[in-house]
Amino acid sequence: xxxxxxxxxxxxxxxxxxxxxxxxxxxxxxxxxxxxxxxxxxxxxxxxxxxxxxxxxxxxxxxxxxxxxxxxxxxxxxxxxxxxxxxxxxxxxxxxxxxxxxxxxxxxxxxxxxxxxxxxxxxxxxxxxxxxxxxxxxxxxxxxxxxxxxxxxxxxxxxxxxxxxxxxxxxxxxxxxxxxxxxxxxxxxxxxxxxxxxxxxxxxxxxxxxxxxxxxxxxxxxxxxxxxxxxxxxxxxxxxxxxxxxxxxxxxxxxxxxxxxxxxxxxxxxxxxxxxxxxxxxxxxxxxxxxxxxxxxxxxxxxxxxxxxxxxxxxxxxxxxxxxxxxxxxxxxxxxxxxxxxxxxxxxxxxxxxxxxxxxxxxxxxxxxxxxxxxxxxxxxxxxxxxxxxxxxxxxxxxxxxxxxxxxxxxxxxxxxxxxxxxxxxxxxxxxxxxxxxxxxxxxxxxxxxxxxxxxxxxxxxxxxxxxxxxxxxxxxxxxxxxxxxxxxxxxxxxxxxxxxxxxxxxxxxxxxxxxxxxxxxxxxxxxxxxxxxxxxxxxxxxxxxxxxxxxxxxxxxxxxxxxxxxxxxxxxxxxxxxxxxxxxxxxxxxxxxxxxxxxxxxxxxxxxxxxxxxxxxxxxxxxxxxxxxxxxxxxxxxxxxxxxxxxxxxxxxxxxxxxxxxxxxxx
Length: 668
Ligand code: ADP
Ligand code: ZN
Known about the structure:
By secondary structure, the protein is of the alpha/beta class. The protein has four domains: 10-205, P-loop containing nucleotide triphosphate hydrolases (Rossmann fold); 213-341 and 379-408, Rossmann fold (3-Layer(aba) Sandwich), CATH 3.40.50; 410-515, Arc Repressor Mutant, subunit A (Orthogonal Bundle), CATH 1.10.10.10; 539-623, HRDC domain (DNA polymerase, domain 1). The chain binds adenosine-5'-diphosphate (ADP) and zinc ion (ZN).
């Protein structure tokens, strides 16, 4: 890169943005952050995934003299990152354990000769004296500490090697440092500052909102069918991630999707390394692959065009949910975060915590994380507002989550809760046998099943007092009581037991409000998704006339990416293809004004793109000159069931007095 001789300023940064990256303006706080680092100051950047963190260190590295050193734990991604930069005409390299000594030496030579704009380094390499001496001998323009939350010891991605990064400032006090992360909590923020010695850095905390992600949490009934329906009706031909809790369910789900004709691959830590790597590579490189994975998959997956993230099991915390769903829609295009959630999830997660290693305090902390996640699932308010609140930020109802799109109703479930808790109390009194939700619901609905008859449960005073609710609704009541800790589960068979707070409800001193159960939701956004019916997804706001052009460009991109051995998005992002398909540039000069097309890509692809446009009759073939010129859903579904959710009589339909719930103390 030709660098100006005079001291760098912001106009250089803007010029690099146009010329190299092909973007017209900075986003959010990018400009301020870049100014801070270009000027030699330290910065701490908290910005959500997809917010545009990379430019915050890449542009200063291009503007300042010397090489920007990027410390990243994501060794497997370095090659792709370097490829993407090379495609932009940026001189980049990496040093990590996957290289042989010759490859490493070549990169070191390039660095010493000041022929690199950016050098990616694994943190463990930086600890070695030889690497430190290498850096001393070259010219370092800045240190970028990517995934900076890895320094947080209590966080989920802790890397011991990150602790050593505190020495950067001592050894190279004049070199500016920029630490970046998408992990939002206050605690992590504070730990990064302390451990990296960033007290004097400027802090840039962006909003953690991801407006392009549509959050939806649906009642779980048949998760495999539900996710298939989601893919078919809204995301045919799209890349997506399906998260499952266990390796076994990963395998099962992937096999099911493949059988149903979806291009799906599995990913979990128990697979042999080669298959796993191959599956990851397919997901990253090819268009429209669905990866079914445990949460081991994903950190640093910076594929920009993941169109949906589906959770078939409940995440353990709101942080986890936010990180995982955040892998959707990094490119800013519409994306879906869909979670199927049911009674079994609550039971399972509570059991996992019960059986987890560690002391009582640890279990309590896990319990609190789960409670926050459950509250997000059961809320009747905007999901996004609740999510942002969790991270200490405020928001207004978003219009792009299931509760905003189909407002959820709440109902007074006090009487229903009393019925259910009374039944559990009665069964507990028997002390002979332990019973789960199934038996309790059968009793409430007055079902004379073999098991009900065997234990004389049809003789209980609560037998049949709950016939006004269906089974799914009763399961919803159990789930929400569990979520509110008004009920608990015990043992391997999910025995329902009362909690200390149950007495409040039974004694009529506390009322219970619940989210009304909806019928299992069908597709939410009928208008979006595949309009072409050919399996390839067409972006929502693309005019119909531009559809065939977009698809032709996508085919050209797939072919080009394959030839060059790079992921499709390294050639062009979807947004760029869409802009081309809508604007139909007739000349290379015009093409150069499309977002995401800088000088290097224009030189490389103008001929291919203009040729493709001409081939599908979108432009005048004679205009397709090769010489490039430099250029500067509606909600989660159907209405609530017609059945009244709870009786609204003044008189409870069963004799509460007769049940005479004794005070809590007597029940133990
Ligand atoms: P992060 O690392 O924060 O997850 P990235 O740096 O990968 O995000 O950027 C996300 C997407 O936004 C990328 O596709 C990137 O090219 C694009 N992008 C970043 N900054 C701009 C900008 N100023 N104008 C247009 N697109 C941008
Ligand atoms: Zn909302």
